[in-house]
Queue: 4 jobs
Job 1
Amino acid sequence: MKLVLEKIFLAFMGLLFVVYGAMVPVLKIAGSSTIGEIVEVRREGGERNDMTPNRYNWSVTYEFKDASGKERSGNTKVVGSSYSSGVAKGPVMVMYLKQLPFLNAIDESKFFPLERIIILAVGVLFLVLLFKKKKA
């Protein structure tokens, strides 16, 4: 029973990683773009535990109207210095799926960011190791 639960957990985590890693390219290919507005930029917590000093997490909240005219919001995280996130309030391009507008992201004009490639690779690795046949 424990082995079955472990396999279900690994399959679930692998699928989540694959979906999250592929979200930006899917939004670029099958999504819609609109102009949104960054409404809040806020520093979170204390200094990051990085090799580079003076680095902080920032939360960026944005709002946009979908194709039906309904107001939607989204949130993303960025890393910045103690005094600036590098993101200014104001207009921003937002990508979203018309059928599922809660799946949205700020358009950073990178088709496949490096961090998403790593997340996607980890998800695929989970799934490959999970379904790999053991040699007997």
Job 2
Amino acid sequence: MLDRRKFLGVACGLGLAALILPRVNSAGPARARGRLLSECDGALAELAIQYVPDAAPIAATVYREFLRQLPRDVTVYVLWPASR
């Protein structure tokens, strides 16, 4: 008797899923509107970097060398954790 109930439960679940799932995904994926922008062409206008004082031995030299190469009209936002 218990096996029959399990079988009926599984069959009902599969039947309901077969009825519901096609309706849920019928719209399809959302389409992007407008033109896609390249991530590797053009000049930087703004830049955000994260700085953690504990990582200064690793990051300070890299940031210094990188930031020196940027044109003066690039706006740089530096984010760091609040004091503890």
Job 3
Amino acid sequence: MIIRMLTENEFMKVVKVAEDLGCSVVYHPTKKISFNTNMHITVPYEFTLENTYALAHEIGHVIDFRNGELDHDYWLNDWSYRVNAEMSAWVHAYKVLKQLNIPLDHWQTHVNDKLSNYFLLPEVI
């Protein structure tokens, strides 16, 4: 787990990217970090690097959805499609974070950990 803290300003720069894309960011301490097609991202109001990476990842889904490249029904029902969608969201997230000069110290470890969960499922292979 990444415990490095960011400043509120650094975190809010990432929030602003979501808002500039027309997405509302809803802060909730216990709900799962997620994006929905009503253009809402739910995320805790925490300034950890891990939480910021997760927010950027959800912004990646927003980018794909706005570009017509994310089909939510396929994402829900087709594990192979989901893996590709998740990888695309991580690529977008990296670009957002890099552009905002958010530290990428633990990026590779974080993404590897998140993506590896999908490859445990027989539906993906």
Job 4
Amino acid sequence: MDRLLTLRQRIKQRIEHTKNQIHATHNRAFIDSVLIEIDTLNWVLNEISQYSIKS
């Protein structure tokens, strides 16, 4: 269970780091790819949370 907590913290840090990469001057393709990464990380975080609840 401790590993899941560590993984959740790392994913949250990665989401914050990735959000900080977005700037209005970036082109739309870059922003879209970063938003996809954030959505994917949020999905993984949600799956981990559901797994933690079931265990």
